[in-house]
Every structure is written in C-alpha cells, then in structure tokens.
C-alpha cells in the first residue's frame, strides 16, 4: 500500500515460464543412458521386424490367391461352383461369429459400467514424456482396452487428463470414439471428488500390499512411460492429494531384477522400466484377470 500511495506501481511477479512451471528433467546416469540406448536399438529392430512381417503377409495373400485360382482352373464347372459356395458360406460363418462376439463384448462392457471394478489411468504426465513415449503409452492403452474387453467380467476403465498431445493421439486411434469407457479432460481428483475416500493409487513405492480387490474402491494407475527418470512421482502425487496408495504383489508371483514397476511393452521383463501403466501383456492380464474375478485377486 505504501508504494501505491507514494505513486509507485505495485510489484507484479512475471508470468511463469514453461521451464519454471515444469520441473527440470533429471539427468540420466551412465547406466540409465546405456539402458535407453539398448531400448532404442530394440525398438528399431522391432519396427524392422514389423515391416518384414507386413511384407511377408502381402506375399502370403498373393500366394493363396494364386493357389485358389489354380485350384478352380483344375476342376469342372459343377465342382467350381461348389467350392465357391463353400468358401462363401465359411466367410459368412466367420463374419457372423465376429458380430456375435462383438455384441457380447458390448454387453459385458456396459455391465461393467454399472457394477464393475473401476480402474483409472491417470494421463496427467504427458509433459514429462517424449513424443515416442506418449505414442508408446497410447499403444499400451489400446492394448489394455482390447484385453479388458475379452475378459469374462471386465473392469470399467477411466481415462482422466485427456488433454494436449495425449488426447490428440488417443483420438487418432481407430474406433476410439466408440470405446465403452469414461473419458475425462479433468483430473481424477476433480472428476471423482465425491468419492475421494475410495481412491487408491497403485504405485510400486507404496508400503501397502493389495491382496484383495474392493468393488467400492477406484484404483488408479499412473500413465507414465519415463525410462526410470521420475522415481516415486506417483507416490508423491498421491500423498500430496491425501489419497490411499497400494502396490500389487508382483514380486510374489514374478521374478523381477530390481523394481516391481510395470515393464513397458517393448522391454524385456528382466529390465527395469518405471512405466506405471499396465503395459506388459503378462502383467496386464495378471492384473485385469484379478479385477474380473471380483474375489481374491491373487490365488
């Protein structure tokens, strides 16, 4: 007030710069850099294999087409008509089975929406990830949804914090608009404020072991692919928000080299990766199967 009365303008703090608003990215240790390079080589090799598999698939389709044409050329008109009809009926049968399976999946997911176990994937870490890590996370989420839909009693999935590049990449997924899940631009703490006492953040750093699932609880998984840069970040977040935490008893069922965080989809299980989201196929099925049992999580 003295400055104002004396004719001086009040001091206004400058706006927060991006570098000041976001925490500085910790430097990688020599060992972490070696692991990152190994990971990058592995991903490059995997991409090359995927391309080769795609080319091989094209060759197989062309080979089968030629074999079919040669087979038809060697039979009488009557036998040819029977073969074509048989093939057409088989195709209709397969399409009917797919349609039936799709309808059953929709029924299961809608049932889970009403009375299933709620699982939240926290997507508020995109500013801490590189574009390739965000892409990796989006692929993991797609796989999670596919596996969950195949479960006899699936969970009900939530995606919270769907903003920015993360939201854009999710929108580019085929059929994403038709996914039977909850999509929230808000954080889970805002979207589920009335159920805060039931929120449980799953983090490998928690001292509480989760042995049983509670349908009243809403379990949160951190959507973060960070290659071991942000240790303990999900536990710290949960503690600041004053919500419960727990960790899965992974070490009791799988042999891990060090940390018991979820490995990413491109990592060998023996290598440490602090990916918090349900990325590894075996661990993901391990968790989702437990969720669908509605009873003891680990037998």
UniProtKB/TrEMBL annotation:
Enzyme class (EC, first level): transferase
Gene Ontology CC entries for this record: nucleus
Stored InterPro entries: MT_TRM10-typ, MT_TRM10-typ_sf, tRNA_m1G_MeTrfase_euk
Family matches, as Gene3D superfamilies: 3.40.1280.30
PROSITE patterns in alphabetical order: SAM_MT_TRM10
EC number(s) stated in the UniProt entry for this protein: 2.1.1.221
Protein's name in the database: tRNA (guanine(9)-N(1))-methyltransferase
């Amino acid at each position: 007030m003295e400055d104002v009365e004396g004719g001086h303008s009040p001091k206004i703090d400058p706006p927060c710069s991006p570098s000041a608003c976001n925490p500085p990215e910790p430097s990688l240790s020599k060992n972490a850099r070696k692991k990152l390079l190994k990971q990058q080589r592995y991903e490059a090799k995997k991409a090359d294999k995927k391309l080769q598999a795609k080319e091989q698939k094209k060759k197989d389709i062309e080979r089968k087409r030629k074999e079919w044409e040669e087979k038809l050329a060697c039979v009488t008109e009557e036998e040819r008509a029977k073969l074509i009809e048989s093939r057409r009926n088989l195709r209709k049968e397969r399409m009917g089975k797919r349609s039936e399976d799709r309808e059953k999946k929709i029924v299961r997911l809608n049932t889970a929406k009403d009375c299933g176990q709620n699982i939240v994937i926290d997507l508020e870490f995109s500013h801490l990830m590189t574009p390739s890590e965000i892409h990796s996370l989006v692929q993991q989420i797609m796989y999670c949804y596919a596996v969950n839909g195949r479960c006899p009693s699936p969970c009900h999935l939530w995606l919270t914090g769907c903003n920015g590049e993360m939201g854009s990449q999710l929108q580019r997924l085929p059929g994403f608009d038709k996914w039977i899940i909850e999509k929230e631009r808000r954080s889970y703490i805002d979207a589920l404020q009335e159920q805060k006492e039931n929120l449980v953040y799953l983090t490998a750093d928690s001292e509480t072991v989760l042995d049983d699932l509670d349908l009243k609880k809403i379990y949160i998984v951190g959507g973060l692919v960070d290659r071991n840069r942000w240790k303990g970040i999900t536990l710290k977040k949960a503690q600041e928000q004053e919500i419960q935490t727990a960790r899965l008893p992974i070490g009791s069922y799988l042999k891990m080299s060090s940390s018991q965080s979820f490995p990413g989809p491109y990592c060998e299980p023996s290598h440490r990766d602090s990916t918090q989201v349900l990325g590894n196929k075996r661990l993901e099925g391990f968790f989702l199967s437990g969720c669908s049992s509605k009873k003891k999580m680990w037998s």
